[in-house]
Amino acid sequence: MFPLPMPSWIVRLQGAIARASPATRGALWMVLAAVLAALMAGLIRFLSATLHPFEIAFIRSFLGLVFIAPWLLRAGLPAARTNRLPLFSIRAVVGAVAMLSWFYGLALMPLADAVALSFTAPLFATAGAAIFLGEHVRARRWTATAIGFCGAMVILRPGTESLTFGALVVLVSAATMAAAGLMVKELSRTEPAKVIVFYMVLFMSPLTLVPALFVWHWPTLSEFFWLIALSAVATAANFATTRALVEADISVVASFDFVRLPATAILAYFAFAEVPDRWTWIGGAAIAASTLYIVLREAKLDRLRRKALEAESPAPGAP
Fold first, then answer.
1. Which of 33, 98, 3 lies closest to 250 in space, CA to CA?
2. What are the average pLDDT values for consecutive 10-residue runs of the chain, which has 319 residues?
3. What angle do CA 183, 186, 187 make, to 5 degrees?
4. What's the rounded Cα separation, in Å, for the pair 165 and 161?
5. Are 201 and 80 in contact (CB under 8 A)?
6. Helix (H, G, I), strand (E, B) or coil at 251
7. How far apart are CA 48 and CA 108, in angstroms?
8. Per-residue CA distances from 116 to 131, 171, 261, 276, 298 (Å)
9. CA distances for 230 relative to 41, 125, 175, angstroms
10. Whether the Cβ atoms of residue 279 and residue 154 lie closer than 8 Å to each other
């Protein structure tokens, strides 16, 4: 059985991408990841019309476990051995809260507003790193964090109808997402990425099942198809993000993550007739600028730290 010939334009496109610089390839992968993340948010909103977000979150977690099972079958149980189960457990609880609140928030408020507010996660991470990890945060990062907070307030506009329960749920999701990210950062010092993902879906599946049972009804065949599509898109988005970071430094590709906002706005307009107001764009731009500054600043400091360590390390063969 011979494979079908690929269209010539796809072959030419693949050749052009292969010849591009690593920075260009990383940017393309990150743009793809952003578009897929926007599509994932749209699928969650679409499915939440007939399924409760908690049920969607559980099935997403369970299918993630199914997708990673072949790795465990090939590598065997010793590959998943770890001495950090307590931190894995806490990370799973926090991650479950982040996922449940994100899925629930997407069902309650306009998509573009939710995505704009989700960009506050690095701002929460900055505060969390200073408070809980004892990291030294300088004035410039605190200033960027304050600007991002002001951007969130522009979107929320306390005292108006924009400060909704859905907006607060999305902010809870951003805060817990940041906390989960800090725990992953700590775990990644000793654990491989596949082990971190395995324990995440292993623990989050039963954690998300509990609230899902209270709102459960069996998905129809059509709904189950869209749930599989959601998991496939989410998996592809994670893969594209990983490829972007493999091809280029985070300082190069980070800005392209903000393609999520216009991509989500376009999807929301055509699929759900939602039109973001000017305050969403203004606040989203402020959050994006502050978050991007923090990411670029961290990348620069990390490069300086690596150079300092290399300078202190003795050269090979030195006494």
1. 33
2. 50 64 78 89 94 94 83 79 88 92 92 86 77 71 80 72 81 88 79 81 91 94 93 81 72 72 88 85 83 72 70 57
3. 85
4. 10
5. no
6. helix
7. 9
8. 25, 10, 6, 10, 21
9. 9, 27, 23
10. yes
